Amino acid sequence: MRTYLVTGGAGFIGSNYIHYMFRKYDNEIRIINVDALTYAGNLENLKDIENRDNYTFVKADITDKEAIAKIFAENDIDRVVHFAAESHVDRSIKNPEVFVKTNVLGTAVMLNCAKAAWELEDGSFKEGKKFLHVSTDEVYGSLPDDGKSYFYETTPYSPHSPYSASKASSDMLVKAYIDTYHFPANITNCSNNYGPYQFPEKLIPLIINNALQGKKLPVYGDGMNIRDWLYVDDHAKAIDMVQEKGRLGETYNIGGHNEKRNIEIINIILDTLLEMLPENDPRRANVSKDLITYVEDRKGHDRRYAIAPDKIKKEVGWEPETMFAEGIKKTIAWFFEHEDWMKNVTSGDYQKYYADMYQNK
Ligand code: NAD
Ligand code: TYD
Q1: Residue 246: DSSP 8-state
Q2: What is the pLDDT of residue 361?
Q3: How far is the CA of 83 from the centre of ligand 1 (A)?
């Protein structure tokens, strides 16, 4: 039975990936989920699978060498899928250091421990071992608003935020391991994800949550920035396909062909909420375009991201499957069914974060 070590599996994409993998492989695989449970990690995301015999949770920080080495020593790990990271651009602008620690040092620890566990005496690696580093398209910087330029795997790195700079550094470390040791790894650079379990500091869940409560909807700058949105299950599938069918040592861009301006996203969410809320639901009265509030722009705000997913389509056979209109309905339906989840994650520390970040505007 193949054993996966998933880092950051209690976060948004990691928990969706674990669900996806158990739906796909059921009892054919074993997953060990290592997560430090920062503000972004939530074991509630994994409630329905936590009692499986082929699932184990380990609370550990990826920067803790001893803890990570112990997991490799006690388990014959076949695959590493490395999600754990500090992931929010706005937080990185306020407090960059933890991004360097987790994203750069944490990735170095993961690489080093995997290398130590997998390397043979002659410097080659045990058969079948693979490390997948989950990264972002933000490492490529910002595209012009021309609707025709795209990020390719060959696009030079030009990160602007402390978040993307730390992810770019971690990608470079993985590339260095590939080049220096022929370490069996892949890197995936994916565009913006949305879907169930996304923490409401990110645009889509924040807008859904605020709109349902009649709270203002903060739009940075002119609201015309473009992101290329991908439904999270499509990302989970792409990661699995790259690990199984991709060429080792290669980078694959993952994207949805789903470019939208932020203001368009907000309008779609408002329209979809009104379409989906029953006539007698009291929250209907809260949902209104009058809530849209333009606020100060994010510092160094990248204008446009857009992925050319040609390589992953050609070499791996992956294509995005979920159209935005369908994905946003599934996402909103999930948030309707998980009101308690939202209440839990927005109590406590989130209140302070929101007050500091938005001055309760
Ligand atoms: P997230 O913030 O929701 O989850 C991150 C998880 O990592 C949390 O469970 C957290 O507890 C854990 N973690 C943080 N620091 C840790 C540490 N030091 N040790 C162990 N665990 C730690 O993030 P996400 O949105 O699920 O993103 C996952 C990965 O995907 C990240 O590497 C991110 O850069 C990448 N990515 C995200 C997007 C996106 O749109 N969200 C797009 C492309 C790539
Ligand atoms: P976000 O979800 O933080 O993802 P990223 O910055 O990694 O792309 O933001 C998506 C876009 O939405 C980005 O252009 C910033 C913008 N945005 C707002 O306009 N208002 C908000 O309150 C947030 C959180 C984001």
Answers
A1: S
A2: 54
A3: 5
Ligand closest to Cα of 33 equals 1
**Interval 129-176: pLDDT, tens:** 999 999 999 999 999 999 999 999 999 999 999 999 999 999 999 999
- Mean pLDDT, rounded, for 199-228: 98
Residues 333-351, mean pLDDT to the nearest whole number: 95
Q: Which of 208, 219, 227, 350 to mutate to test the pocket of ligand 2 (most atoms within 8 A of CB)?
A: 227
Q: What is the pLDDT of residue 360?
A: 56
The answer on pLDDT for 359 being more than 90 is: no
The domain that holds 85 is classified in CATH as 3.40.50.720
What mean pLDDT do residues 63-92 have? 98
**Which has the closest alpha carbon to 231: 254, 207, 200, 264?**
254
Q: What percent of the chain has pLDDT over 90?
A: 98
Distance CA 140, CA 174 (A): 16
Task: Give yes or no: 138 in active site.
Answer: yes
Burial grade of 69 (CB within 10 A; 0-12, 13-18, 19 or more): middle
CA distance linking residue 212 with residue 191, whole number of Å: 26
Whether 4 and 81 have beta carbons less than 8 Å apart is answered as yes
Range of the domain at 200: 2-358
Strands, E assignment, 116-250: 130-136, 185-190, 193-194, 217-220, 226-228, 230-231
Å from CA of 203 to ligand 2 middle = 5
Tokens 């209104």 label which residue?
288
How many C-beta atoms lie closer than 10 Å to residue 245's C-beta? 12
In contact, 10 and 46? CB cutoff 8 Å:
yes
- The total number of structural domains in the chain stands at 1
Q: Is 177 a catalytic residue?
A: no
pTM over 0.85: yes
